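yo, Iron-siderophore ABC transporter substrate-binding protein is done. seq:
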Amino acid sequence: MPLLIITIRDSRGVHEFTQVPQRVVALQWDILENLVGLGIRPAGAADIASWAEWVREPALPDGIVDVGTRAEPNLERIAELKPDLILIGPTQEDLLPQLKGIAPVLLFENYRAESAEGEAETAIAQFRELGRLFRAEDRAEAEIARIEAGLAELRDKVKRAFGTAPEVQVIRFSSLTTLFVYTPNSICDYALKKMGIRQPLQLPNASYGLTQVRIRDLKDYTDAYVVYIRPFAMEKKVLNSILWCATPFARKGHVAAAEPYWSHGGAPSILVTARRITDALLTLAPGAGQ
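structure:
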């Protein structure tokens, strides 16, 4: 019987596996999301307790052991799980020597401003790579096709509601006077473009697809709709501030909240991003709520 050899490329190079990993630990949320999207339940993962607040979808399957935070994973707890593969991102790269002493390690990196591909394209490529490793190629391709079909459906839904594709600026509040906007390399911008939507504020690519600006930097966008992403602890305070209320979109009532989702996820988050934004945007469509 010929030896099984699975060749996988991560951010460090090419690796060969002679069997499909069975006990995996994922230390980065985008990687964990990709695993769940492939129907794989890891033995352990980082920051499980925060998942329901910041990510929500997809829901995590039961039985995953929490191995600490993404910034400081618990190496002893990881070792106790006896993993045959550890999946990490750049946040854990400094722990590579210790982790390699426990199990083989694959590093999947995304979200650099200078990357040749955008975050969504990279997430899809990594999703396919993991699909090959776990012999789930058909599931990976079916999920990618589902994402593309879902984006097309949402594009049509927005166009029907507004008559044309509106300009939409998606933001995350960072303080009472500043906010984050999504740059062209972000998953958010990719999803918007797939839906035929343009963000009026176009800035250079940035790490994690986010750039901080001041609220007053949006003062000239008179025709734009603004969707802000929850959670933000001071949401009510900022929405009632003089600075925010003076913006043209606030005066017109062209502002809606999107329920929480993770902006820096794996391939499944592309469609989640689009759905969250669309759900918020449709509350602002002409005739909505009548």
